[in-house]
Design goal:
globular, mainly alpha, two-stranded antiparallel ribbon, two-stranded antiparallel sheet
Length: 420
């Protein structure tokens, strides 16, 4: 039996401090998105308690309390909802509960399944109309946070045999077709806005985003996860290969730039070396390498699998890249990296798995250094980063849980990260 890492005590202590929704400071609980945001509110904190209860590390009462907060107002659907807000966010949390306690929340899930599927179909209709018109996409059309890749992860978990997930996959396949714009041949996910999803004068001519959160690595991961489950639409394998080839074109040693701009295209023959950048889930090598590993597993490509795992292990051993990380968050911090390394190690070739397990241990040591008081650290984290999932304490505790315990997650909570 694996000896738990001391970081497990930090995870436990954060959960204990987040047991009661009423104890959350009004500075957080009064925010407009508090009840329905997976990233910044109650559904994300519920995920922590769901996984703990499912593994036997915590009671079910906090789960019910946090889900009650999430469902206390009418659930947002339609254009204002996405994986991290509204109906899909609540559907993901309830589905994780039902995985551990079959039969629970079934009426609510049946309703949410239909709501999410209907919204996905409307989004696909809009995307297809855009394709036909020849316009370039917004990030919110296809990305993991607000777009089809994220909503597709909910459909893949809840209704893998349904029409909606196939429509989503069709749209993401078509997204990988090259487009002509201003005499340039560009990847189909090139957008004229900045990485924030809004017009940005720093990005004249737009950009192609590489990351999981807002870029093409999110659709790549969903296409691969679906293929691994035997869900395939026309052109899916070719779309995966096209995306992988584009990412390979822009990789520098073990790292990828966060985005490609027209300046990159003009300087493609003599590229400048990448500056040190954090190898995060949202942007950077960790998220992209995990998506590449999932694609390799889906395609049965041994060489690509080894390449992805080598990229991840190299990035996690790069002191300059790790020095760019400044927090513990699941989004772009040490806990998120530990979770990705642990997930990747489970699927890795033996020689790479050993290195990834070692990297995971070192990341856990950094997240919770030896002889650190978990109560002091947990309270400091709640004060400085807040209680939320994506960038706060709940996500940190959840991302540390399986790596520190030396186990595999019991629920598919990290489907919202497209890492499984």
């Amino acid at each position: 039996m694996t000896t738990p890492h001391p970081a497990l005590r930090l995870s436990d202590r954060i959960a204990e401090l987040l047991t009661n929704p009423e104890a959350v400071p009004p500075a957080w609980s009064s925010r407009p998105q508090w009840r329905q945001s997976l990233a910044h509110g109650a559904p994300g904190i519920a995920l922590l308690h769901i996984e703990r209860a499912a593994t036997g590390r915590g009671p079910w009462e906090p789960v019910r309390a946090w889900l009650s907060v999430a469902a206390a107002t009418p659930v947002t659907s339609g254009a204002e909802s996405y994986l991290y807000y509204g109906a899909p966010a609540l559907a993901h949390a309830l589905d994780c509960t039902a995985q551990a306690r079959p039969g629970s929340y079934q009426r609510a899930l049946v309703h949410l399944d239909q709501v999410v599927a209907d919204d996905a179909m409307r989004r696909c209709d809009a995307a297809l109309a855009r394709f036909d018109h020849g316009d370039l996409p917004l990030l919110a059309e296809f990305d993991a946070i607000r777009g089809l890749a994220g909503i597709g992860s909910v459909l893949l978990g809840r209704s893998p045999g349904g029409e909606a997930i196939r429509r989503v996959l069709d749209c993401l396949v078509r997204l990988t077709d090259d487009v002509k714009h201003d005499s340039r041949t560009l990847p189909g996910w090139w957008t004229l806005v900045g990485p924030s999803g809004r017009p940005d004068e720093r990005f004249p001519g737009g950009h192609a985003n590489t990351g999981v959160a807002h870029g093409i690595a999110g659709p790549l991961a969903l296409l691969a996860l679906a293929l691994r489950l035997g869900i395939e639409v026309g052109g899916q394998r070719e779309a995966i290969r096209t995306t992988l080839a584009w990412l390979e074109r822009w990789r520098e040693n073990h790292a990828w730039p966060y985005w490609i701009t027209p300046a990159h295209l003009d300087d493609a023959g003599h590229r400048r070396p990448l500056p040190p950048q954090r190898p995060s889930w949202c942007y950077g090598t960790a998220g992209i390498a995990r998506a590449q590993q999932l694609a390799a597993l889906a395609l049965g490509d041994h060489h690509l699998r080894n390449d992805a795992e080598q990229a991840l292990t190299t990035a996690l051993a790069d002191p300059k890249a790790l020095a760019a990380i400044t927090d513990l968050s699941v989004c772009h911090g040490y806990a998120g990296l530990a979770h990705i390394a642990h997930r990747a190690a489970t699927d890795a070739l033996p020689r790479n798995a050993d290195r990834l397990h070692s990297a995971t241990s070192l990341l856990l040591d950094t997240a919770h250094p030896p002889r650190t008081d978990p109560d002091v650290q947990a309270r400091f984290l709640l004060t400085t980063a807040g209680p939320a999932f994506l960038e706060g304490a709940a996500g940190t505790a959840l991302a540390l849980l399986a790596p520190a315990a030396g186990t595999t997650p019991t629920t598919s909570w990290d489907a919202c990260l497209l890492t499984s």
